[in-house]
Amino acid sequence: MNFLMTKRTDEMSPDAFPVAEENPFRGSTSVQLEGFDDTTQVGTGPPRPAIHVRRRINEQLMEQVQRYLNQSGDSSTRGRVLALVGEFGLGKSHLAAQVTDMLRQSTPTPALWVIGQPSLDMRSVFQHRIMSPRDNLEAMADFEQAITDFYADVTAELLEQDDTGRLGAARDEFLRGLRDRRLDPQKIARAFDLDEELIHSHLRRHLRGVTDHRAFATALALLPNKAYQADIWRWLSGEAPAAPLQQRGVTQPIQGIQGVFEAFSVFSLVYGQSDRPYALVLDEVDKIVEWTAQDRALFLNAFEMLVNRYVNQGGLLIFCVRPDLWSSLPASLHERVLPLWLDSWERPATEELIKQHLLRSGRAPSDAPCAPFSDPAVAQIVILSDGVPRQILRICEGAWDQAALGRSPRIDVEAVHEAIRTTHEKRPMSEAARRLERVLAGDQWWHNASPRGLGDLQGPPGAGEPRWIEVTRTAWIVVLPVRSLLTRASVTGIENFLGNARDAAAAQGIEMLVVVNGHACGAMRRQVAEVTGTMPLVLDDPRFDTALRSGVQSLAERLRASQDNTVLEKLSHRLDVLQGQQQTLLERVDSIDHALDNPRVVATHPVAGPSHERVPEPVRAHFREAQEALDRLLEEGEGPRPSLVPVARTAAGRPPRPRLLLVDDSALKSMGAVVLARRLLEAFREAIVRWWEEAGPGGGEAEPSGRDQGELFAICRGFEISMESLPRLDRGGAAPLSGPPAPATGPGERAQDMLAQLADRVLRELGEAFSEGPAPLR
Amino acid sequence: MPFIHCNMFGTPPAGGEPPWLPYEPLVPWCIEGHEDLWVELDHVPPAVHAFRNQLIQVARNITPDRDGRGHLVVVSGLPGTGKSSLLHRCVHEFVRGLEEPESGDDGRPDVERQGDTPRPWRLREQSDAISVVPVTGVRNNGRDLESSPSGHQEAPELSTVINRIFRTVVAELRRTPGFTDVCGPEIDSPDHYHSWHALTDALAQLGRRLAVIIPHIKWEDQDSRWAFLRFCHQKADRGVVFFVETEYTALEKEIGLIFDESELRGVTLLKTGGLAREDWGKYLRLWMDLPGIPNPKVAIHDDLLDCEPAPWVFVSISKLQTFLREAADDALQADEAYLRRSRVLLRFDKNQPNPDNFLRGGAPNPDAFLREEPSDPDDPAKEQGETAGIEPNELPDDEEDRRDEP
User: Fold this and answer.
1) Residues in CB range of A345: below 8 A, 6 or more apart
2) Are B365 and A181 an interchain contact pair (Cβ–Cβ within 8 Å)?
3) Exposure check for chain A: N or C terminus, fewer CB within 10 A?
């Protein structure tokens, strides 16, 4: 209302206020297909030319249609069925209307049926809202011609069997003329006294084969007879059959989904057989989604049959469908239909659309392509409209009005935002709250008081009161109604709110569901989803109720599951520990068992002192160092030194509790490794001593031989590989091949190094001592 | 078209004055002398033979009393092959068969039979034994039944057609002397059963039989055709004989399906067809010997008998007669006394069927091959239902109209 008034008061200089006068974007943004061709101009104003932005899809579609129209001849290869697949507002109907116009303007005009939307009451659609042959004398004549063609074929067939010579010498010429559709079979039948009743009964039989439908065959066979024509045309236009037709077996009007589609398929046969082009345009097939399953199945069956007929009989069928339904259509349809997908509009097309609307209203484009729209405003329109042309036009219309209201010379981002707010934020926040209440209460989700400490949490600016839902004691869902999501700031507001809430209730799980009471484009929704982990819901969405219900449901499940997870993890950890302890005990029992079965032979243990001293001189120091390192390790043990001082000597004088010392697996393992390493070292030393005493100068006069050298090598190598098979003493340590060894730090590492190099050193030094000849000193 | 007083290749109207009508059925039961114009064409003797054979067997039982039987005679054949003529001839034979034993009883002097040379083409007196009702007149043209009172052609509908037949029959019978005195009020009942019952009761009291002649009706539907024949058969009872004409040539195959074996005993199916080569000579000789043809006429030259006619004139008697009539017209125009072979041959050439005359769209139809147009405007007498029949004034009226033609 406001802008209408402004418009009148603003009639000053159009240059000063380019955003004045009539809004070029005013007008309906949805196209309705019309069943009838009507070019009569309405009113006195100049007709508004339709605006078509040329995009690839337009060209594809028009090319297909043009190719259909250009192809002549064999109707079995001409037929095609096209599906315009796309979401709301992408311009399916617009394209369909464009095709319809094109078909109506082409010559010769093909027979064209246009159905705005399928309806359960198909009879009334068929009867009242579709072009019937009666509406168009040419179509009627075409139809009659087509039936006459069949009549001619049947007449020729009967004449061929006639041997009376009634056609004279030109018999063959007559037959050819009939089959070529040049001669009029009825004239011939009358002139040559043929049995018209017989022709008729043959024609009816023939048509029954062609149409596969008794009633249509009966009616169409009667069409050449003038007396029935009016009745038949009325019946073919959906009216109840007249008495003469009823008597002949046409008892029902064309009705029901099945009946109407059968009628179309019969029309297609009639035109297809006579190689005439014909088209059916069916918009909003999605209507059937709301039907009962039975009706839907009925529709799809009949539709599939029709598609087959059109493909096989040289027809052109175009229908508009949304992607959801398209993907649920049977595979047989997918095989026969060529889908043309409509995608969202990118910036150049958006600019073109705006420019064409400006041009149509007589505003010449100035330097900027979309003036008075500013460049950032256009960018915003591209983003906020999601590339849906219907949205683009609505936003433009609103923005224009906003700018006119504010007497602004240009349309900037603010006007665009304001336009969206005015269009989409009609519902007050309280109403949004009521809606939430209604939907959630239906599923027994109560409006709980906010969790402790979150009562006075501030929502983002303009947001409604957050609604808290208690899933478990420590898990909450917060449903936050917000205004239109237009800028990054609104997303940040939501992010902050959620962050604050999670901070304030640290130990508790909080999931958030954003409900937009206004407009939210795809990009903004994605941003919110990144921040909150949930997709925002838009209140205006027709499926909002179900979306909210299932959203809350799945969030609740998510929360419960995550809590369950924490408990499970704890349990599993505890079980691991217990298992470890049990394992250790078992191993212990095993080793005791083993020890009992194989008691250690109490051999005369070589006296430590002498054994140490018998070690050859060159390597004695090495052995000693290694022995010391191992002794130190054994002495120190693993982990803190155990203590059995009783725990907690309480003041109450209760007896002190014994302390239980548990050994864990790794400690056992490393201690065992140390003990074994010691035994191995001992064995190595003994073997070296024995070798030295046998082969060495001290043992005999013989020269050291190759065999002796070999024995030394075998001993050293034996120690080395046995050592490697033991667990490392340094608990992991560096990988053996990872560069230069770092200086050993811990005692374990030192011992490990020493032992690893011991065999090498012994071999090298004893070998040198041997080859030098002189007997080492003892 | 010059005024031609008489072309002998036509049908003499009652009175015999020229002009003779172009191809029309012969109505011997109505017009004296029509029975002599019969040419025993190829198909006629077997058909008449079949009729006599079948009907003689049952004729005794065809009586108007309560136990009396009826009969259904169906003639099928292509248009122009003489179905109506055959049918009228059968009616004539039937009427004569009834009259012969009766003529002695009532002592009425039989002038026609006793007189030496009764003047031909006089209207015959009505028989007392039977009422003959041609539902659409003696021309027996089906379109009268199919059209509305305004003359607009309608799709034939079973109930309408039956209703019209009923009303025509009742209206005709009311003219029979004494009928109105004996018939009950139920005759006007909308229920056909009661109406028909009252009608046959009245006929029984009068001791009259009834012959109803029904033209070809273009049903274009098997069910309707069958239902109508069943209706005729059902009403052919108590001395009522239905004579039904049809152009549907496949009826022969169907008749066994329409009626069961016992019903078939009350049904006679006759067929008409094309002509044979010999019919040319037979036909010409008959007309050469025909007495009493009014002047002016063109005589038939002997050489015409040797002519080899084109095969297409043998398609039907109507084709042959129309062809000869036009040839005779040509000869008359050329001021020739004889119709010669050369003229006929010329005309054969000229009338050879030509596909170019049958092009789709508005191409003209050659007259020679056009059957009488259904929308023929000069047909005033036939439009009214009650004038159809044997009323003596009928045909002379028609004739008057034609005489006035320029």
Assistant:
1) A53, A55, A353, A382, A385, A387, A388, A389, A392
2) no
3) N
CA distance A132 to chain B (A): 22
pLDDT band per the 50, 70, 90 thresholds, residue B4: low
In a domain, A81, yes or no: yes
- What is the Cβ-side half-sphere exposure of residue A457, based on CA atoms within 13 angstroms? 27
Number of cross-chain residue pairs from A and B with Cβ atoms under 8 Å apart = 127
- CB contact set of A268 (below 8 Å; sequence gap of 6+): A278, A280, A306, A309, A310, A313, A315
Decide if A106 contacts A278 (C-beta within 8 A). no
Quick one: A89 and A208 in the same domain? Answer: no
Query: What pLDDT was estimated at residue B246?
Result: 94
Record: contact A165-B360, CB cut-off 8 A: no
Q: Which structural domain range is residue A509 located in?
A: 429-567
Half-sphere exposure of B387 (CA within 13 A, CB side): 14
At A707 the pLDDT is 52
Q: Examine residue A648 and state whether it is found in any structural domain, yes or no.
A: no
Q: Which of B353, B363, B370 sits opposite A167 (nearest CB)?
A: B353
Q: Smallest Cβ distance to A183: which of B78, B250, B360?
A: B360
Q: What is the pLDDT of residue A363?
A: 73
Structure tokens, B269: 């199916």
pLDDT of B281 strictly over 60: yes
Out of A173, A193, A198, the one facing B248 most closely (by C-beta) is: A198
Tell me, yes or no, if B154 comes closer than 8 A to chain A by beta carbon: yes
Q: Which residue has the higher pLDDT, B280 or B184?
A: B280
Give the residue from B238, B242, B240 showing the smallest Cα distance to B269: B242
Listed as ranges, residues in chain A with pLDDT below 50 are 1-16, 605-608, 698-702, 733-741, 774-778
Residue-level pLDDT at A777: 41
Task: Look at chain A and report how many structural domains it folds into.
Answer: 5
Cβ(B26)–Cβ(B135) under 8 Å? no
Give yes or no for a cis peptide into A466 (omega within 30° of 0).
no
Nearest CA to A544 out of A511, A520, A561 is that of A520
Nearest residue of chain A to residue B366 (CA atoms) = A191
Identify the helix (H) or strand (E) that includes residue A8. helix A2-9
Contact B358 A198 (CB under 8 A): no
Which H or E element spans position B147? none
Contact assessment for residue A148 and residue A270, using Cβ atoms and an 8 Å cutoff: no
Is position A589 within any domain? no
**Cβ distance of A169 and B315 shorter than 8 Å:** no
Among candidates A183, A225, A231 on the partner chain, residue whose Cβ is nearest the Cβ of B359? A183
Q: Is the interface score ipTM higher than 0.85?
A: no
Q: pLDDT tens digit string along A480-495?
A: 999 888 888 888 889 8
pLDDT digits (tens, 9 = 90+) for B167-201: 899 999 998 888 888 888 888 888 888 889 999 99
Chain B residue nearest residue A183, CA to CA: B359
Question: Chain A partners of B366 at a C-beta cutoff of 8 Å?
Answer: 191
User: Which of A236, A269, A295 delimits the end of a domain?
Assistant: A236
Contacts for B269 with CB less than 8 Å, ≥ 6 apart? B74, B75, B76, B251, B252, B255
- pTM of the predicted structure, to 2 decimals: 0.67
pLDDT at residue A128 in the model: 82
What domains does chain B contain, in order, with CATH numbers?
38-273 (3.40.50.300), 279-357 (no CATH)
Domain match, A434 and A561 both: yes
Question: Which residue of B158, B361, B365 is in closest CB contact with A191?
Answer: B365
Q: How far apart are CA A74 and CA B108, in angstroms?
A: 78
Matching residue, tokens 């024949």: B229
Task: From chain A, pick out residues whose CB is under 8 angstroms from the CB of B220.
Answer: 196-197, 200-201, 221-222, 225, 228, 248
- Is A84 in the same domain as A202? no
Side-chain half-sphere CA neighbours of A63 within 13 A: 8
